[in-house]
Specification:
Elements lengths: L3 H22 L1 H4 L6 E2 L1 E6 L4 H17 L2 E6 L15 E4 L4 H4 L2 H9 L3 E4 L6 H4 L4 E3 L6 E9 L10 E2 L5 E5 L1 E3 L4 E8 L4 E8 L2 E6 L10 H9 L4 E6 L2 E6 L12 H7 L3 H20 L3 E6 L17 H12 L5 E6 L18 H17 L7 E2 L8 H10 L5 E2 L24 E2 L7 E2 L4 E2 L5 H14 L1 E6 L7 H4 L3 H18 L4 E3 L1 H13 L3 E4 L3 E5 L7 E6 L7 E3 L1 E8 L3 E6 L3 E5 L3
Parallel strand pairs: 2-3, 2-4, 4-5, 5-13, 15-16, 15-23, 15-24, 16-17, 18-19, 19-21, 22-23
Antiparallel strand pairs: 1-25, 6-10, 7-8, 7-9, 7-11, 11-12, 12-13, 14-27, 20-21, 25-26, 26-31, 27-30, 28-31, 29-30
Helix pairs in contact: 3-7, 7-13, 9-10, 9-15, 11-12
Length: 593
Amino acid sequence: MRNPLFRLKIKMFFFTQILCLIAISFPSIAISSEPVSKTNFLLVSDSQEKNSIKLVDNLKRALQCAGHTFVEVDVTALPGMTRKDFTESALILCCEKAASQIFPPDALSYVQDGGILYFAYRCFHPELMNPLGMKARDGPHMFVDARGLEAHRPFFRQCRPELQIPLFVSNGCNIDVSQEWEVQLNYKNPPNIPLLLTRSFGKGQVIFWNSSCLQMKEFRGLFLFSLLRSLPIAAMSVFNRIILQIDDSPPPAYDLKRGVVARDFGFSDFQFYQNIFYEQVMQLLEELAVPATHFLIFNYQDQIRGPFNKTIDRLEFFDNIIKKILNTRGHDLGLHGYNHQSLMLTGTTSRSWPSIEEMSQSLQQAFSMWQEKKLPPCMVYVPPNNLIDNAGKQAILNAFPTICTICRVYTSGNDYRVEAFNRDGGGDEFGPDEKFPRLLLMPRISSGFYLTELVRFSVLNGILTHGVFSHFIHPDDIYDSVRAKSNWEIMLLNLRRLLLFAKENLPAAEATTAGKFMLPMKKYFEENIHFEQNSTCLKVIQQKGFREFFYVFSRDASGDPVIHGGKLIATLEPNRLFLVKAVEPTMEILFSH
């Protein structure tokens, strides 16, 4: 019989082999000994410079919605910082002064060791930029006015961002760059001025936005993707939803024959809506599996003083359209108002209401009419003219107990010439209202029937920033010479083209109504997630709410990732970008290289 020591050695051998097999079968265990770090970013801003404050606020909002943490320091702290202070995944310079205040050898060493140096604002400092292969053509601060931008290659799947004069006006440094740089975006006018360019430097990456455009809300998606693509492994949370809203539905109608409708069909507006618009639009939405939320108004009278009666304009027409909507699978109703007067006490293009009490009375009457018609519970409200103040929000809460979501616009100044409704005209953000947390804000990012250059850019920004297509149309666009642009057949074809563009670039996204999106959006903003990663594993940790969907980035993966606590929904770009769904509070995403 063999001695006990020999038997112990045999047992240890088999135990070691079992551990090896476990490590091979479960890569998350195999990498557990490797150091794990949190993904966060160091934002350098200038508290004395208005443009820097606006820029950093915009980038912080983008990072917060994507689920990322960050540390903000003032540019005055840079001279006292050394290489050991730069421990974040990326150093983001959000002001012109940063390039001259940072100690170049420390910044370059940080990048060579694997860090990300991100210039979020036009700047030039020879001691930092020249070693990176940049030279100023006309001096370090020679800026040029520039109009329009274009992409050298697809930025997301097959989408190439492009904007023409006068939709994009910016300025940047007049520079030449070495061949190590890849120019991703270029100015159109003047030509040959790089706008966004990237390069490897040692083990790290450098991203340079030669522009002031990242102050604009419309560039958040390009910011996030240019940042997260540069990390070895990264992720961001997204909604992964398609939301279509139809305002003034049922639309205003007066039994008049006018415009291209009368010319092409000989129909009045009543006839057009009942026989063509709703028939053909609903058929298109059914074919593409895209439901819509219709926002109704009971009357178009301008009454702002009580008592408010139960008046419904064009009653038979109204009832026919409502019946058609409710009999179409998946569609839902929201409120656009008792009438088309904005809920504001002052400062509106509509008639200002004399008091919050009378606002509330009109809405109470609308709630009573809603119940009498036995309509489904109303949870969302679109303010007429996209205007509402705090008094109006309070009136909604007082009178319409089921409403908990307000849908306005994401940015002002779109095709509908929406009046700016806050001081900077920036529009609403997704998430709880700051003054009334019970109300969730769910802005529409794009609008209209046509996939114009501006609409394409807006849709792309929504997909890259939030993983969402949030769009609205008006039935009466056909009667507006600016919005219609052509006849009904061409408008309908363009709506199809626009919806297909959204679905192609949001594969596997859930098309839903605004009311059904409310609950997942509420959970989304209840959760403060954090990411941890090493060279081959990314961990997503959630504790309170729940964010389901994530874009996952890899700089040099070979094949799809292995996922524990979640599942791969779609490979958006082979080896580079993936859509992942979390099914457990902790999700591990593992890559092979």
